[in-house]
Amino acid sequence: MRKALFVVTFLFSVAAFAADNTIVDRWANAVGGREKVAAVHSTYREATIEVGGFTGTIKAWHSADGKYRKEEQVGPYSTVEIFDGTNGTSQQGAAPAHRMEGTELERARSTPFANWNAVFFAFFPERRRGSVAMEGDDTVVMKPEGGIDWRVTLDSKSWLPKTMVHQEGNRTITVTFVSYETIDGLQFEKEIHRSAGDPRFEAVIRFTKTVINPPVDASFFSIK
Predict the structure, then answer these.
(1) CA within 20 to 30 Å of 101's CA: 1, 79, 92, 192, which one?
(2) b/e for 175-210, b at 16 or more Cβ within 10 A?
(3) What integer is the mean pLDDT of 138-148?
(4) Is residue 29 within 8 Å of residue 159, measured between CB atoms?
(5) How many domains does the structure of the chain reveal?
């Protein structure tokens, strides 16, 4: 009996693992294939943003190993975030930069794998520090070590991300992927909407430029 229970448990685990792999494999194939994604070491993206009656711009650099730099200007407000893979700093306008701690640092540990950059975490188990699991039939739950959960729900027809959801305190942040475009054989989101539950402050983000493997000096992601 004990042996039979072990066999049943083992087969169930194998089946669950296979199901997880199938969903992630479909996602990887839809994006352009693991081999093509594996050749991406960094990205640079520019976008326009509309939120709360203001318009602005976003510039973001991401590395495959979990570093990022984001510069955002919306109306009279501006922010710069830098994360070097371990520590992060944030600066708002002309105020002094401050070191990220607590929940802000938790969010920063997951931000390198937000939106398109989730492929760096989901597709390569040998690289990542953290976990990937399934929730339902079409949702991949990613949790970088020391970070927060990203719940990526895939479209069952295209197998590209449809929504990405995470918590920031008591707010649920939902990113909806509205459209995609092909760049160097890879599918990137072209337009996304970001909502925290109040339609007055829903952000509409449209990407206007994407560069794969741009020349980026390591010091660009360093904390000064």
Answers:
(1) 192
(2) bbbeebeebeebbbbbbbebbeeeeeebbebebeeb
(3) 96
(4) yes
(5) 1
| Residue listed under structure tokens 């072209």 | 190
Domain range for 115:
2-221
The secondary structure of 124-169 as a DSSP string is -TTT-SEEEEEETTTEEEEEETTS--EEEEEPTTT-SEEEEEEEET
Is pLDDT larger for residue 5 or for residue 67? 67
pLDDT digits (tens, 9 = 90+) for 1-57: 544 433 334 333 333 334 446 899 999 999 999 999 999 999 999 999 999 899 999
Closest CA to 179 of 164, 197, 202, 161: 161
